[in-house]
Design brief:
This protein is an alpha+beta fold and 301 residues long. 38% of the residues lie in helices and 20% in strands. Strand 1 and strand 2 form a beta hairpin. This is HD-GYP domain-containing protein.
Length: 301
Amino acid sequence: MSGVFFNYKGSYIEKVLSKKNELSLLANSGQTEVMIQRIDKDTLFFIYPGDNSDLMELFYILEGKIALDFNNETIRLSQGDYIVSKDLKDKTFFKTETDVSLLYVSNQPVFHLMSNKMKKLSEMRRLVEEKDMYTHDHGERVKEYSAKMGEKLHLSNNRITVLTFAAAFHDLGKINVPDEVLKKPGRLTKEEFEYIKKHPKDGEDIVKGTFIQEAAKAIGQHHERLDGSGYPLGLKGDEICIEAKIVGVADSYDAMTSDRPYKKGMSPKDAIEELKSLTGKHYDELIVEKLEEVLKEEGLI
């Protein structure tokens, strides 16, 4: 690339769209990439360590406001402020307080990670949601509740990152479940339920080898229950990772409160009472308590 190039507003080389996030590659040359990132309000987003210490990234706020916790203090940044990441040792997360537009410059290629890998996973999630219409936006709701519970449990930035990916993509394995099983209005036969029981492991296998492979374990365990009555492995208690326990609670709550063609969803109050009745047996008591706090803060109960 050499010379001067003119491009009009809205032009880009390639754009990646995902839930609440849009990343457009404006220019690249050698190792350097210039991008515009747009993120919806009330969304967690992350800055990741690079493969080597030479990676430097700049995030310049064109519009909007973001917040981050730094040294036990909440820092708020807005238009004209910027973040520089260099030699990052651990993942760092921020939360948008409004819709946000960022100028994102990296001195090493990063766009291809989103372009090639996130596209495939996001498309697969879309197909799963089309297979079973009750799950429309289910993954996004489970992610939001899981992230909020993770914050209340004071999980590290790294664990919240793993948690949000696991929650967003927990049902990927349903891509292998026959449509007639997913859409069946009545009780499943034993043979049909065997298809359902395979989806956590299938989802785990799908994300292995991708840039969210750390979430594989939680995806594979999100239907395990404390008393060993879950699936696919019948794990008990501390054999289940905390991310899977959180996703399991969020997943169950959203399933309980979602309308289906043959059954109206529970109210938030009835759903939380149902979850509380199963603490110590299916669900971790502290995690259910944190979900209850979230629902109260949102005015749902």
